[in-house]
Every structure is written in C-alpha cells, then in structure tokens.
Amino acid sequence: MQRIEDDSLMVHYELQNASTTVMNAKVEAESSLCYIKALNYVSKVIGVNNNLQTGTLKKGSVIKMFCFDVDGGEETKWFRYILILIFRRLFFEKKIVRLEDLTNGLSRDEYERVKSTIQKLNINDKLLDRLNSHLYFRKARTEYFRQLSTCKEIKSVSIKHNDFDNTGNPDFQIESTSFASYIETFVPETKIENHAKLYIVSPVIVKGKSIKWKGNYMGQDINFEIMAGQFRTEAQNAEIEFRTGSYIDCKLQFEETFDEDENPLHKEYKVLFVYGHGYDDKYTETLEGKKKRIEEAQPTLFDNLEDW
Q: Which superkingdom heads the taxonomic lineage of this protein's source (predicted)?
C-alpha cells in the first residue's frame, strides 16, 4: 500500500528457479529503460522534476529499487506521491487514472494537501486523459513487457513501496502468463493528401532501380516512392525535364505517429498519382490530372441542396 512518505519502489523479478538470483542482463537493461521512459513522460506531463535513482537490494540483482528524488521544496512528498501513484496505476496496474484516484484512502489532512497540490500542478481531467491514452507511454509499457516475455526464467514481476523486508508480500504482482495482456499492437494511421505540392530534389531516372526519390514537402526533406507508373516511366525515359524548383502536384500517402510532445511524425511517403508537374510558371498536366480535374468538375447528387 502506497503511503505519502514513500519515496522508493521495488521491482521484483521472481524467477522460475528460486535458487538463482540472476536474469538476462539485456532484458533487465532494456526493460528498465522502458520503465524510465514511461516515468519521465508522466513527470513531464504533470510538471514534476524527478531525478530517478536506482540501486539493488542485498537479495540480488533481480530486485531493483527505484528512488524518486523529486525537487518540489516543501511540496516534495506530495509531488512524489502523485507522481508514483499515477505511474504505478498506469504502468503496472494498467488502469486509467481519474482525479478522485489521487485522493482516495487518505486522511482528512492528507486529502486537503494532495488536493491543493493537484491544483498547483494544474492536473485536470484533460491532462489525465492525455496520460491515459498517449501512444508514447503505451509503447514504453508494451516494450517493457515484451522484453520480460522473452525471458522464460521470469515467473512474475511485482512491486512494493518502501517496506522491502517482506518481498513475499508485494503490493501488486503480475504473473508471466499475463504479460501478453500488456503488449499492444500499434498500427500507424495512414494519411492521404490530395494535390500535395512536392518539390523534387533527386529523381530516380534509372530503370529497374528501387531507390527512393528525394524531395521536399511542406519544408521537410523526405524520401518517397513513386507508385504512379506512367509518370515514373516518362521520368526514366527522360521525357520529363527536372531542374531547380521542379515539383509535382500529386496524391501523397504517408503514415502518421506522434512523439512524446504529441508532435506528428510522418514516414513511408508514397506518391500514388501525379496530376501534373512543372517548374517556375511552366506546368504540364498528366492524363491522371486531367481525369481528376474532370471528375472534380462533375456535379454530384448533393450539389445545390440549399436550394430545395
């Protein structure tokens, strides 16, 4: 049970063979890195400066102790309590966090102090929703348990707050048979931009080469594939002139994910259709472009509904 004064969290990797105290070093190192990434993300979102420290207990290296060195002045223990509670609940218990969870089970005085700290940190439902669902945190948790699942020697992982004398009575324990329930599959969202203006930096005009083209889209240098067969063939046959400032008007597809600051990250660019190409004031419409222009000019069933 977590208390306000608790400043450490024990992570205990129970092994199938109780007589040994060693585990795969790579699994331990990489899983700890995932743990740290997830914790740092929570610290950043709620605005708590945390200098995580680690050590081992005398019982062996399969028991890791994480000490939360929080810089909060007189509010340190309240900051730390909120940080550990949110992290533990999200990372190990895999439960969503609501505002009421931060004050449940506290004495009247503790309730008032934690409530005041919540207000000082500007923690609200919107911020907690961000923590509950953000991909960066979920990916770190997924990778942590994926690493543990590769180590067949691990029987379970458990956590305990501060009182480390009785490791056989953990605060929360996850059996290895449940690791799979923590592992998510993330599929990037596919985005389509119609009439994207893509500047050509380095075209691939050699036949039979699967090298990606280089270009610039929205001020960002990108590598991309040309899926538009006719345009690719004409480029390889030197029927299209590329010079400084050359661009294509195209249907552009890419995958979108987000970093820890929720900035979009794009990759796997593909040009599905080329509607036209040119440079300076010169522009040449392709057959696909003409077809697209005619389609867009056609009236639809729902045009002029406001006149009815």
A: Bacteria
* Residue 76 CB-density burial (10 A; 0-12 exposed, 13-18 middle, 19+ buried): middle
pLDDT band (50, 70, 90) for residue 300: low
307, pLDDT greater than 80:
no
| DSSP SS3 for 63 | strand
Counting beta carbons within 10 angstroms of the beta carbon of residue 9, is it exposed (0 to 12), middle (13 to 18) or buried (19 or more)?
buried
C-alpha span between 157 and 255 (Å, rounded): 35
**Residue boundaries of the structural domains of the chain:** 8-182, 189-297
Which range has the worst mean pLDDT, 64-78, 213-227, 285-299? 64-78
**Which residues have C-beta within 8 Å of that of residue 25, sequence separation ≥ 6?**
none
